[in-house]
């Protein structure tokens, strides 16, 4: 008779302990996310972020700095010119790659 209430108490204590552990894990996760967000916020408020955004979005540069822009269209046309004729089979291309170099 005495053991039944003790077992119920033990089961309740275990359930509460599991719930506390789960909530503690959530707290740790939220603290970690909060720290990451704080770091991101401090970066976004810094001059480095402002400079990066000015470079990327507005195309600005520092005095004395040279900027080179490479268009993807130009890259495709230059690689096509060096690739050779398209009629060459894949086998022949591999043969040239391994045995002609």
What this model shows, in words?
With 101 residues, the protein is mainly alpha-helical. The protein contains 4 helices and no strands. It has helices spanning 3-44, 47-58, 72-83, 90-99. The protein is elongated and about 90 Å long.
Question: How would you summarize this macromolecular structure in one to three sentences?
Answer:
The chain is an all-alpha fold and 101 residues long. The protein is built from four helices and no strands.
Per DSSP, what share of the residues sits in E-state strands of 2 or more residues?
Answer: under 5%
How many helices in DSSP terms? Answer: 4
Give the ordered list of helices and strands.
Answer: HHHH
Distance between the termini: 89 Å
Largest sheet: none
Whole-angstrom Rg = 32 Å
Poorly predicted runs: none
Mean pLDDT: 84
Descriptive tags:
mainly alpha; 101 residues
Question: Topology of this protein?
Answer:
Blueprint: H1 3-44, H2 47-58, H3 72-83, H4 90-99
């Amino acid at each position: 008779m005495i053991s039944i209430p003790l077992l119920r108490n033990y089961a309740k204590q275990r359930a509460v302990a599991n719930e506390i552990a789960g909530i503690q894990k959530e707290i740790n996760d939220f603290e970690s996310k909060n720290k990451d967000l704080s770091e991101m916020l401090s970066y976004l408020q810094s001059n480095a972020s402002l400079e990066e955004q000015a470079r990327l979005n507005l195309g600005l540069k520092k005095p004395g700095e040279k900027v080179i822009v490479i268009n993807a269209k130009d890259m495709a046309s230059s690689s096509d010119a060096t690739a050779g004729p398209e009629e060459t089979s894949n086998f022949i291309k591999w043969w040239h790659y391994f045995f002609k170099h």
